[in-house]
């Protein structure tokens, strides 16, 4: 692999490959292999197959332990949000993986390097290569650096309906009354702001603001959810 | 958990739980928890969520390394065959897991204990519990005892079309000619036997027998596949 990329992986993530050929394989598309016959090159697909399962376990383990009260249904939805093509391609770009993919000329011309589906594959094959070279631990460390902080940043929030979640979680030990109250509404017509509180059995559990009542309710519900998630 | 089950796990699989409550959780259905309120019991669903990902990685890792020439598509199909409700429920029965599930009275009456879908869940939650208690290694060991030998026994064969596989694999480095030849046909009408050979570019690569020409061809193709799988 290119020395520049080795340096990036080492400096940014503390990852140094013992077997560089795994990294090569993980970043090589079939189109490149086809253009270099006789060199016995391998392309990323097999490693991607493995990386997919490695990443899924690392994410599952993390959210299982981080949210000890979260029921299976919500764990499954959260995992699906984190194991998602759009997420993967963003992560790959953030890590500058797009620059180092080896493509055939036709694919290069067709701008495959910018294609979400390819970046998604490469993200998974990178995970697979790290796992094959060094086992589970550096993969977990990488995810703690790149992926898991995004949970707190709300990165996966758009996949959730917090009001529905709150209802499910608050009622898991019996019925409760969840109500949303408009506390305030102000600002000009083209920039209206709403402030909403949510109460569970008349106890205030969260306050949210937003540019619509609906959005403010979602924010309030998300805050109220916290007590069930830790 | 019941002492008898602890003994079975130890004697049959060499597994001794440090934290017995994980095993309890893995074998308890929600219906049992509902019938014992106030005991703060947990049911298996969360652990099953984790076990699912653990098992998928163990299987992926094994077939990736065992079949270094197998392309991604076939790895994916093989994994799907091994991560399959019908397989899981058979494994669970074989390990006598069905006897030790804790069910509510209604579910017991409804014979949930014999339901494939429940046995499938319990198999996964068992894997999850072993992983949580002792990490990856004993899960891998368990799979080497219970699951992986079934690959050689042809357990997952019915999920494959060997003729299609052979075509895909034999042609991955360019076109070849695959032909099936009827070598022999004998026996009475109600117990006819067929013998077929398969050639790749006129070289015989496998011979198969069966009660129909089609089945004999599948067996021949499976034999010819071996050279690509190791």
TrEMBL record, chains A, B:
Limits of the RNase III domain: 6-135
Residue ranges the record marks as coiled coil: none
Binding site for Mg(2+): 48, 121, 124
Top-rank taxon, per record: Bacteria
Transmembrane parts of this sequence: none
Coiled coil among keywords: no
Active site positions: 52, 124
One Gene Ontology MF term: ribonuclease III activity
Subcellular location(s) per record: Cytoplasm
Cross-referenced SUPFAM superfamilies: dsRNA-binding domain-like (SSF54768), RNase III domain-like (SSF69065)
Domain DRBM: 161-230
Keywords: Cytoplasm, Endonuclease, Hydrolase, Magnesium, Metal-binding, mRNA processing, Nuclease, RNA-binding, rRNA processing, rRNA-binding, tRNA processing
The UniProt record lists the keyword RNA-binding: yes
Enzyme Commission number(s) of this protein: 3.1.26.3
Cofactor(s) required, per the database record: Mg(2+)
Pfam families xrefs: dsrm (PF00035), Ribonucleas_3_3 (PF14622)
Reaction catalyzed: Endonucleolytic cleavage to 5'-phosphomonoester
Subunit description: Homodimer.
HAMAP family linked: RNase_III (MF_00104)
Protein task: Digests double-stranded RNA. Involved in the processing of primary rRNA transcript to yield the immediate precursors to the large and small rRNAs (23S and 16S). Processes some mRNAs, and tRNAs when they are encoded in the rRNA operon. Processes pre-crRNA and tracrRNA of type II CRISPR loci if present in the organism.
Family: Belongs to the ribonuclease III family.
The protein's name in its UniProt record: Ribonuclease 3
